[in-house]
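re: ur question from yesterday

yeah so i grabbed the chain u mentioned. its 405 aa long if i counted rite. heres the sequnce exactly as i have it in my notes:
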Amino acid sequence: MLTVSQVNRFLKSLIEGDGRLNDVLITGEISNYTDHYRSGHLYFSLKDEAAVLKAVMFASSAKRLKFAPRNGMKVIVRGRVSVYEPSGQYQLYAEEMQPDGIGALSLAFEQLKQKLETEGLFDREYKKPIPRYPRRIGVITSPTGAAVRDILQITARRWPVAEIIFCPVLVQGETAAAQMVAALRGLNREGCCDVILLGRGGGSIEDLWAFNDEELAREVFASEIPVISAVGHETDFTICDFAADLRAPTPSAAAELCTPDRREEAERLVSYHAYFLQSSRELIEYLRQSVDILVEDSPLGNPERYLSPLKEKLEKLQQALADSLRLRAESEKSRLSLLTGALDALSPLKVLSRGYAVLFDERGTVFRRAADAVPGKEIVVRLSDGSFCAQVQGRTNTPLGYKEK
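ran it thru and got these structure tokens back, copy pasting raw so excuse formatting
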């Protein structure tokens, strides 16, 4: 009698003992795809019209994939068939996988391109303008390739005043993308250049694959300094080409795109100088003729003719002003005389001159009633020509001017 474990172990030994199942290529359609992000293992099934085969790809193999598997994708898988003893289930242990009918790199390129395009990383509205007259140019490329030499030569010929800030990096291999990302971040952090050239010479799609890295594309898009993608391939594109602010077909073309030609600039300056010189001469001649016309047809040509009527008008205005002032003075003088006469008629002194007097007590209060006069008190009598003191003897009801017998 056998145990379940013994049976499963026996079946596993039979399958693994068959050399034909140790290294097989199987084509089929992916279904039931599961990506265990924590472990990195991929679990899926391969199926055709008549059957289904369970499969697993461990993280060590999955991290080498150049594309993202999806349900419904037809693939070719290389691996071995064995039995998973705990469940007694035989399955395919996948070691390599590639799309059936399209290359893995091409598929990965299209998948990443579609993803970043959907996010808006390629939109034209985010493209930064390339400065016309850069003072410092950042160059990120291999120190041993022809790209840096071409850039230096073309920059020296076209715009020698520009300073090259060179960041040597690997442009091929597993660490190339990370080095380029670090160089981009460093140039942006220091803010030491006006434009960045990122690229390399030509090569196969595998050689250029570092420029299809997602992190590098995002760093190119996030760069505050304008970036020119200068990967040496005329017809094909990389992801960096789409994310960059400007794409150049080669490093040499990138150097030309970011630098003005000093000879053309010198010719432009000469033409500008000639234009402004001619324009200034024409402007001076126009102004001179305008002055001549103004002198002939304006007071500058015959000031007496212009000033004579103004002088006559001024004299008339002066005479009118003098007459108006004289009449106004006479009118005010007459009015003043009338007011003076009226004031004089109301003057208390005028009344006193007619024989009247004003009486004051010792405090200077005017007597208004006879009852105010207290017998024996000193009073002051004010006449028209002066004052004198008197003493109240008493009050009387005798009319003024009547002499009592």
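noticed a couple things. The longest helix spans residues 303-345. also The CA atoms of residues 213 and 327 lie 102 Å apart.
anyway ttyl
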